[in-house]
Amino acid sequence: MAEELATSEPPSEPLAAPARPAPVADDIPLLRIDAVVKQFGGFRAVDRLSLDIGAGEFFALLGPSGCGKTTLLRMLAGFETPDEGQILLDGWDIGKLLPHERPVNMMFQNYALFPHLSVRDNIAFGLKRAGMAASDIVARVAEMVALVKLDGLEKRKPDQLSGGQKQRVALARALARRPRILLLDEPLAALDKKLRESTQAELMALQRRLGTTFIVVTHDQDEAMTMADRIGVMDKGRLEQVATPRQLYEAPASRWVAEFVGDINLFEGQIEPRDSRLAMAPRLTVTTRDAGTVYVAEPRQPVTRTSVCVAIRPEKVKLSRYGPAPNTDNAQAINRLEGVVTDVSYLGGTTTYRVKLDSGAVLRSSMANTARIDIDAYSPTHRVVAWFTPDDCLVLEQ
Amino acid sequence: MTGRPLSRLSRFNVASLALGLAFLYLPIVILVIYSFNASRLVTVWGGWSLRWYSEFFNDRAMLDAAWMSLRVAAVSATLATGLGTLAAVALSRGERFKGRTLFSGMLYAPLVMPEVITGLSLLLLFVALNAERGFWTVTIAHTTLTMCFVTVVVQSRLGKLDRSLEEAAMDLGCDPLRAFVSVTLPLILPSIVAGWMLAFTLSLDDVVIASFTTGPGSATLPIRIYSEVRLGVKPQINAICTLVLALIAVVIVAASLATKLTSTRGESAAPL
């Protein structure tokens, strides 16, 4: 596969003046990362990773620290060179190019603003290097300043700016050259919570307006879920799953992803042989150690093993004193577990309950506080029935 | 203890401060005062006068030596700054090349090497090379002496500089050399200037290495002074020493101002 791609590579040009070949076919993605490996000593920071990112996409690389997401981003920017594999931009291998030869710009985590230059000169820096005419530079800088709402601050030096303003300068500087791809390394990590939320919205609006491909590296899943069209979850140098935020949350590909993204209840168990009486309903029967028999909707991909893990998100678990009311809405709620409430955490919009099941295992349930005064709220020591439908559960192979 | 005003210093502190300063500066103060002595006898006060200063400015040999010293100091400081800055960049920016520890150890050795050994070894080298001893041999010797000081000063600044600044410059279209020139160099310039001034004063002061490596007719000022003093201290020497002192004081103050400028300006744009 890799060799095939190597032969279809454009004829090698001198690096100083790389000619970008016209896209051979329409189905070539803007960016193709193909079996890329990066080693530091004996440590594989990025391990045969492949990923396609389309034009105009807002893509997030999410993962715990040390998962290789920053190394991958730095390879896209050109600060690291892949040991194996290719990075293709419009079908053109940029893996070995130096940073200044790539039509890609990066916004650094600490912004890396040039302290000896004013806001204006910081933004104009890349334009001057590109040999743009002075009048065009003035126009482009003005455009960028307006875009990130920095009017009136052009003459300031970076140390005279607030954290949010620095972030905007860094963004304007990186966007000024109109890169094919903008790389953002933890763009909001240095901002406080309120500012982070408004900046997220601004980044999304900006991305939609410019149509530039954004690739953002973050360890904050809320940030990734809020902003990105697609998220790649990384662990130990590999992509665990690439999916939309909804798919990632509702259909995690593995137990690791399920536990990393959001909160989840997991019960290990065995899949029972198909019961002829339930043959009509496409569902599996799983006997778990801690939650008894659980009925789970048949997954799209057939399960290959019998030893599995049943996963239910806390907000899918409903609580009541006597089980669901016998109406048609609740006809599917055939999974019922009994237990005692041990902890109640009131979080404003939701309340999280910890229910100790009769087996001794703990089940978490999160319920929206839709009414201001809730006479039905449960308190510790209350005995409750927790119930959920087969469609609310997932089967994850170990 | 924090924020305690200086006026609240105890008597003990004041006394020890005064004694310490007196120990360091009393000889120098006496030298400066006696340089304005009208008397021909060094130890007898004969009223204020600028006589010895004018005598110095009419002493051809002394002026030649002073000019020689300034030239050696300026050229060797410039060479040392160039080489020392390159070494600092190699040590703090280069990949972890093989023998890096050895290299930095060898670079810093002249800091602690007895000057007599440095001087003697250089003398042997110049003799072996059959080089005519004079301006250039002293200059080269002083360059080897002062280069490591420049490296120390510049390297400490480079170490504090945010590496991503250079990366940002490359990202924005600079090749590595250009990134260094347009971003790193302006930010470390004050420390380079400070390093130059340090090298300049060290060269101006040196008598040991210069006496090994200089040749006939190219004596530096300290050597000239030293040989004059051996024949008896003349009041004129006091005047020369005071001038040298003033020059060095000016350079040192300028160097420390430059260093201060470095530390207040251009620290990496750390998040608030």
Question: How would you describe this structure to a colleague?
Answer:
The complex is a heterodimer of chains A (398) and B (272). Chain A has 9 helices and 20 strands. Chain A has 398 residues and is of the alpha+beta class. In chain A, strands 6-7-8-3-9-10 form a 6-stranded mixed beta sheet, with helices on both faces. In chain A, a hairpin with a 2-residue loop joins β9 and β10. In chain A, α3 packs parallel to α5 and α4 packs across α5. The N terminus of chain A is likely disordered. Chain B has 272 residues and is mainly α. Chain B contains 11 helices and no strands. The longest helix of chain B is centred in the N-terminal third of the chain and has 34 residues. Chain B is globular. The two termini of chain B are 28 Å apart. The C terminus of chain B is likely disordered. At the A-B interface, β6, α3 and α5 of A face α7 and α8 of B.
Keywords:
heterodimer; A: 398 residues; 23% helix; B: 272 residues; mainly alpha; globular; disordered C terminus
Helix-strand blueprint:
The complex is a heterodimer of chains A (398) and B (272).
Chain A: H1 2-7, E1 31-40, E2 43-53, E3 58-62, H2 69-77, E4 84-89, E5 92-93, E6 104-107, H3 119-129, H4 134-147, H5 163-175, E7 181-185, H6 193-210, E8 213-218, H7 221-227, E9 230-235, E10 238-243, H8 245-250, H9 255-260, E11 265-271, E12 283-288, E13 292-297, E14 307-312, E15 318-320, E16 335-346, E17 350-357, E18 362-368, E19 383-388, E20 393-397
Parallel strand pairs in A: 3-8, 3-9, 6-7, 7-8
Antiparallel strand pairs in A: 1-2, 1-4, 4-5, 9-10, 11-12, 11-14, 12-13, 14-20, 15-19, 16-17, 16-19, 17-18
Helix pairs in contact in A: 3-4, 3-5, 4-5
Chain B: H1 11-34, H2 51-58, H3 60-93, H4 100-112, H5 115-128, H6 135-160, H7 163-171, H8 176-205, H9 208-213, H10 221-230, H11 235-264
Helix pairs in contact in B: 2-11, 3-6, 3-8, 3-10, 4-6, 6-8, 7-8, 8-11
